[in-house]
Q: What sequence folds into this?
């Protein structure tokens, strides 16, 4: 970090470790290859499906969005539409503006337990909703 | 700078460093292809700059939790390459889209692989961008002076989700069509702006050919340009501010 | 002409030129934004809903308790026969736009997406839909059923 920024926003002194090359480069390249291998394995064992062609006159049973929209989908299923949408918009706004809402100086999650607990509970609820949406 | 500990990994990297010295290899290579290195080096001072950039020290508190963002970028690069390949055969029209995806999967050499990798790498990109975000969130890495990069990051996150949403329609199968119908209808429920948003997204009253070309344009032109600039911004800010310090 | 007068005139000209450039830039940017916005809005043609009655089939085609699905303009329409009376509805669920199905055994419309159900008058019986199904006019002339248009 540049010196002037460091002075204005002091952080705990970071110990400089090993140079990026070769100690981290090798690790990162190995990780990248591992990930590429993982993708190839997924493609080999679970190739993506192609259902039947779209038919605007016929809604199939059990249509579900992609997994990352499942919690939103399940949430909208149980609350009135406008309320549900409004709550989603507010939720996204809070997430985007969190640096300006959360003014606690402390960064360690264990030393700001209320914030961490509330966030973890919200996260957990979203995961539960996604699983519920998947099986409903 | 050489680590003292006797772990297997550091022994391996030490060996790699000594026998496969990249900077030395690069130096050697450029010296032998002297014209390029000589001419370029005289103008750009690469002999200094390349090793300096490569040897930038990484802070000691970095652990595996810090790899999520980089991994997301890796999947983004995979998406870029496979996505460009897919556009060579894909046809964005309701009469042709489904058939062209079937053609890619069944007839084109390695088409199944390119499509499969694009599909799975998209899923993994979203998983890793979420993990990256959770890491930043719970470690409070968005706190001053890094607020701006959090804003850019949430923008990138949303672009990634819209990438997923628009890409999902393109195969034009039943699931794609109806998931899009429901998804756009949800956007239509936004107060005041809803009707307008729905019309802009669908290009008509219902999901149809106009929707497909719109989604194709968003997925292959608008969003790539947007993500390119935001990613550049994300990385420049990161480089200026450095990785968030130890807690 | 004194020097400082020359100077101030030059300054004025420079400012006028800057203002002119800014004005031209803003005007053209505004015009371009307007054109792009109008271009993005789809033309009315793709919003068309047919408004003339359309032949849906013959009376014998839909016995009591049965239904028929058809496309009227861009709208999916369900025609049902309730004890000899023909009714037609816009098949688009008012919740999130899925196409509802007629369930003969239960005598209701069921949306496959979120299990919203509608009765034979299109009113919501259960589930999340906020409004009844859209009603579409039906006329029976001789033994032919027509949907749409004025009733």
A:
């Amino acid at each position: 970090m540049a010196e002037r920024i460091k002075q204005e926003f002091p952080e705990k002194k970071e110990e400089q470790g090993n140079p990026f090359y070769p100690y981290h480069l090798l690790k990162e390249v190995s990780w990248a290859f591992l990930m590429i291998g993982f993708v190839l394995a997924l493609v080999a064992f679970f190739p993506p499906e192609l259902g039947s062609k779209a038919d605007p006159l016929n809604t199939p049973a059990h249509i579900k969005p992609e997994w990352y929209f499942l919690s939103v989908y399940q949430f909208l299923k149980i609350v009135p539409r406008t309320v549900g949408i409004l709550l989603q918009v507010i939720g996204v706004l809070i997430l985007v503006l969190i640096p300006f809402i959360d003014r606690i100086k402390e960064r360690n999650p264990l030393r700001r337990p209320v914030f961490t607990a509330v966030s973890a509970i919200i996260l957990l609820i979203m995961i539960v909703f996604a699983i519920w949406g998947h099986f409903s | 700078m050489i680590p003292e500990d006797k772990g297997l990994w550091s022994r391996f990297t030490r060996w790699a460093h000594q026998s496969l010295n990249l900077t030395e290899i690069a130096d050697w290579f450029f010296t032998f292809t002297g014209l390029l290195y000589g001419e370029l080096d005289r103008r750009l001072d690469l002999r200094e700059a390349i090793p300096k950039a490569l040897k930038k020290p990484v802070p000691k508190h970095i652990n595996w939790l810090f790899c999520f963002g980089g991994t997301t970028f890796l999947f983004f690069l995979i998406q870029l390459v496979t996505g460009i390949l897919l556009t060579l055969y894909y046809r964005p029209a309701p009469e042709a889209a489904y058939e062209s995806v079937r053609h890619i999967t069944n007839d084109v050499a390695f088409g199944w692989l390119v499509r499969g990798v694009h599909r799975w790498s998209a899923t993994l990109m979203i998983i890793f961008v979420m993990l990256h975000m959770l890491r930043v969130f719970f470690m409070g890495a968005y706190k001053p002076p890094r607020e701006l990069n959090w804003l850019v990051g949430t923008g990138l996150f949303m672009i990634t989700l819209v990438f997923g949403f628009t890409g999902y329609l393109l195969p034009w199968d039943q699931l794609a069509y109806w998931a899009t119908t429901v998804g756009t209808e949800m956007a239509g429920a936004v107060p005041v702006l809803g009707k307008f948003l729905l019309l802009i997204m669908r290009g008509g009253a219902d999901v149809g050919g106009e929707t497909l070309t719109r989604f194709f344009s968003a997925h292959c032109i608008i969003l790539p340009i947007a993500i390119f600039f935001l990613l550049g911004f994300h990385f420049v800010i990161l480089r200026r501010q450095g990785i968030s310090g130890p807690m | 002409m004194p020097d400082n007068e020359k100077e101030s005139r030059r300054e004025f000209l420079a400012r006028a030129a800057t203002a002119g450039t800014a004005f031209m830039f803003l005007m053209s940017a505004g015009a371009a934004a307007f054109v792009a916005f109008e271009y993005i809005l789809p033309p009315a043609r793709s919003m068309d809903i047919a408004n003339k009655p359309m032949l849906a089939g013959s009376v014998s085609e839909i016995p009591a308790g049965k239904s028929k699905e058809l496309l009227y303009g861009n709208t999916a329409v369900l025609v049902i026969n309730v004890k000899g009376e023909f009714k037609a509805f816009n098949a688009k669920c008012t919740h999130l736009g899925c196409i509802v199905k007629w369930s003969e055994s239960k005598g209701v419309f069921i949306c496959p997406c979120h299990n919203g159900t509608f009765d034979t008058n299109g009113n919501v019986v259960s589930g999340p839909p906020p409004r009844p199904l859209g009603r579409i006019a039906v006329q029976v002339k001789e033994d032919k059923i027509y949907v749409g248009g004025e009733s």
About this structure: Chain B has two domains: 17-54, 64-241. The radius of gyration of chain B is 23 Å.
